[in-house]
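Bug #77: duplicate submission created two jobs. Keeping one. Sequence:
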Amino acid sequence: MTKTIFKTLGLTALFTVIAIGLTACRSNAQSSENTGYDSSISKGLNAVAEDEMDRAVTYFTNALDQKPKDKKATAYLKQAQSYVNTDKQLADGNPEKAVKTVAQGMKVKHGAKSLDAKLSQLQKTTKADWVSINNWTRLSQRS
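Kept job's structure:
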């Protein structure tokens, strides 16, 4: 009977140690996932501050890979991608499309305030370019 009690206690202790070990491993995995996510968000926002929107898109995409369906990473990525697309459309000489794209970026909910500010400034530039081209077109049609 004493042997049975010691066996039972030994097995119980062994299972307890295994359960604690597995819980710690899972906790470390989640912690490292959060660290990767947090790092990507932080680096993305730093890239925004440095006007490196392509890099920001990469970091926010990585954050979303770490936490699929995350609202913050999704919003930040949409904002940064909108900025990149608008900038490209302006460079390609398509301010009308750029006005629409930047407006979509401005509508993103739960986005980064720093991206809101960058998009707002880009929207002003985009509208000014569009007005200038429209004025030039009207003047050239009169000639």
